[in-house]
Structures are given as structure tokens and as C-alpha cells.
Amino acid sequence: MSAPPPLSIGPIAARVETDAVRRYREATAFDGKMSQGSTGDGDEVPATFPAIWLWHPAAKAAFDDLAGEEHLIPVLIAQRFSYRRALRIGEEIRFVITRRADAAVPDDVQIEAHIEGRDGEVIADFAATYRLFQPELAQ
Asked: How much of the chain is helix, strand and coil, in % rounded to 5?
């Protein structure tokens, strides 16, 4: 297998919607009471919430061509979120996604996102590593 080509997508505009945060909290069983200093009232945006933007129609292109003829599936093996400040419900943001892979390890694909506020303020950076598996070998 050869490494997928580098790719850059964006900037993409998105909004931190109340309903999307609520659904994410429910789906991930995120309990605000587990977060230090949280009031547990549900307005805290979970640190891993930006991962949902990887499935934004414009962003999903980072994954669209990974399957190839081998019908590979990406499996998340590592992720990191680095915040300069917390996301806020109702906030409008922009993000840029980059994808790269090392030719020496073509089965590992790095996806990175840089998140900014509308005014250009850097909010966070997100990085995830996916390993590409053939479905019959992933069992």
C-alpha cells in the first residue's frame, strides 16, 4: 500500500450548536460533573467535541479516498486536543483540516485541525492518527 496523498481542506465555517453539544454529551456519556470545576449544567463543551466536525460534508473528504481498492477502514488509534481556551455554545468558528501520511508507515494517517474564532483568535488544535485496516483483518 502506498501512503495517501497530502490534503488540505478549508477553512470551513461551523457553529457550536446547543443541540449538537447535547447529543454529543449523551452519545459519549460525558458527565459534566466529572470535569473539574464544572457546574454540571450542560453548557460546558466537551474537549473532544471538535471531532464531530470531521464528518462535516466539506471535511469528510479527508477520509473519502482512504478506502482505495483494498476497501480499507480507518480506525482511530490516537488523538490529542490542545486548547488555548474553551469552546463556547453558540460560537461561530473556522477550521482547516490537513491530512498526511509518512511513506515509511503508509497505513497510519494523521488528520489535524486548526480551529479559530471568527476574529482569527486561535482556539484549539486537534490531531488524530488513524490506522488503515482491511476489514477481514481487523477482527
From this structure: 20, 35, 40
Residue 13, H or E segment:
strand 7-15
Residues in the chain predicted with pLDDT less than 50, given as ranges, are 33-39
pLDDT at residue 31 in the model = 57
46: nearest Cα among 64, 72, 28, 65: 28
DSSP string, 56-97: STTTTHHHHTTSTTTT-EEEEEEEEEEESS---TT-EEEEEE
C-alpha dihedral sign at 12, 86, 124, 77: negative
